[in-house]
Amino acid sequence: MELQALWRKADSLRGCLSHLKTTQGRRRYPVDEDPLALTDPFVSDEAKLLSSKAFRVMDDKTQVFTQPKTPLIRSRKSHVLEVAACSVVASEMLGLNTNLVRAAAIGHDIGHVPFGHQGESWMAKAMNRPEFCHEVMAPIIAQKIERKGQGLNLTFETLEAMMRHSGNTAREGMSQEAWTLRHTDKFTYIFHDVNDIIVRMGYPVREELTALIDEFGSTQRERTTTAIAGLVIESAEAGKVSFEESELGRKFKRLRSLMYEIYPCVTQQKVCYTMEPVLECLRQMKIGDPFLLLALMTDKDAIMLAAEPMKDMQAFRSTAVSEIVPHLKRIGPIDLCDPGLDW
User: Fold this and answer.
1) Spelled out in words, what is the top-level CATH class assigned to the domain 3-15+39-266?
2) Runs of H (alpha helix) within the chain
3) What pLDDT sits at residue 32?
4) What gap in Å lies between CA 20 and CA 96, rounded to an integer?
5) Mean pLDDT estimate for the chain
């Protein structure tokens, strides 16, 4: 189908899942401590996440490239903001709760450790916990680390959508907004990574990949719009959020698999050379769970400590994670693989 016709068809289906829209949210602690509490719980969640420390430090966390040499290359924070933008459009088109999708999009990656997925894989092996992942760390940070351990008191719906945005965490019965975020996160990173890796850096790719990219459009905006349109059309036919069975959905899945062949070629980082000495330093300091402290660090923190010949408390105090240490005893032990959403 010609792109303009595809977009028009999706527009004609606007609001197709409005009957499945999430209309209420529940909090673990029903009384919100904010004296100016908002009527919409998901707008409140968004405000809390935007002012959180975890969101603030994502500028210094890897998306694809660590400490990119140009500000036009995405950081983890710019990725998150683009996911929020993509999610708003998709949610509005589907007729779902846009405030919920936007809040979850803003919070979905706050659980990332230094150096992105490579750092995450290294930590999972070092902990001997293969289930360790940033999806689960996000609600842990939101509930147990933020505000000196008091947590943000986000709604269950926002926390669950944050946690189930990726990997094998999806479950039947989760909100349609959570399913939407699973797709819009992928739309966003695939097409902006095409922009950063192939267009901006000129990395050579297979002809099949180029042809697939062009089927979605000639620019990042066109490609994202096409993917959202495909999501709307298939979801309208399926009666739920879906982008798995249609021809366009299958093409996107193939495009994603081809992109995953490229990532190891453009980011050949040996994160162990940085993360191992930092972990050992944290073990020797005995100021808290070294894996928790490492997980909460930024790329900049880890690189600085690894390069520091005198790894002492003075160096540690300059990291983003140092402010939580005085509160760790009161917070108590934290299982880094338990999201704590059984409430």
Assistant:
1) mainly alpha
2) 3-12, 41-50, 53-56, 76-94, 98-107, 116-127, 134-140, 156-163, 176-193, 207-216, 220-238, 247-266, 272-285, 290-295, 299-307, 313-316, 328-331
3) 65
4) 7
5) 96
Q: What is the mean pLDDT of residues 76-97?
A: 98
**Is the pTM of the predicted complex or chain greater than 0.90?**
yes
State which amino acid sits at residue 182: R
Cα distance between residue 131 and residue 155, in whole Å: 24
Which residues touch 292 (CB under 8 Å, ≥6 apart)?
Answer: 328, 334, 336
What tokens does 298 get?
A: 């930024």
Task: Name the residue with tokens 């959020």.
Answer: 241
Mean pLDDT for 5-16 is: 98
Cα 328 from Cα 144, distance rounded (Å): 10
Nearest to 82 by CA among 113, 52, 58, 111: 58
Give how far Cα 169 sits from Cα of 46, 260, 269, 305, 330, Å: 22, 20, 27, 33, 30
**What tens digit of pLDDT does each residue of 223-276 get?**
999 999 999 999 999 999 999 999 999 999 999 999 999 999 998 889 999 999
Residue boundaries of the structural domains of the chain: 3-15+39-266, 272-331
Residue 30 clears pLDDT 90, i.e. is over it: no
Tens of pLDDT, residues 87-108: 999 999 999 999 999 999 999 9
Q: Encoding tokens for residue 261?
A: 């062949």
From CA 61, how far away is CA 56, in angstroms rounded?
A: 10
Q: Quickly list DSSP for 219-278.
A: SHHHHHHHHHHHHHHHHHHHTS---SSSHHHHHHHHHHHHHHHHHHHH----THHHHHHH
| Beta carbons within 10 angstroms of residue 16's beta carbon | 20
